[in-house]
Fold this protein.
Amino acid sequence: MDGELHLSDVELPVHLPRLNRGAHREDSGGACAMEAAAWLSGEPWSDHPTAVHRVIGNVARTVNDRVSDEVRQTLWPLIVASLDTARPRHPVLSLRLSWCAGKALAAGPTMGT
């Protein structure tokens, strides 16, 4: 093992909210990707969890709302990977993430729609 966490190593809770487009009430049984991240990190219900870097959160909300329902259900490992990214380890991380996210989101049709 190389000491890094791999998405295949992540154990998810058995009873997960269903990932859906848009915003949801906490008791609705559904969640967007970032509401799910807040839930997993033990934060108050919100689509802007403090544990997730703001650029990653913006991309996650956009992807969540653009992909098909089937593709959206596969986002759980990426949601888990987004946790604890709010503290950049490099001074230009936000700029790099913003640039990459902008390029990726502008690059043509959405997947799985």
Helices lie at 33-40, 54-66, 69-72, 76-82, 93-106. The CA atoms of residues 17 and 30 lie 5 Å apart. The chain has one domain: 17-106.
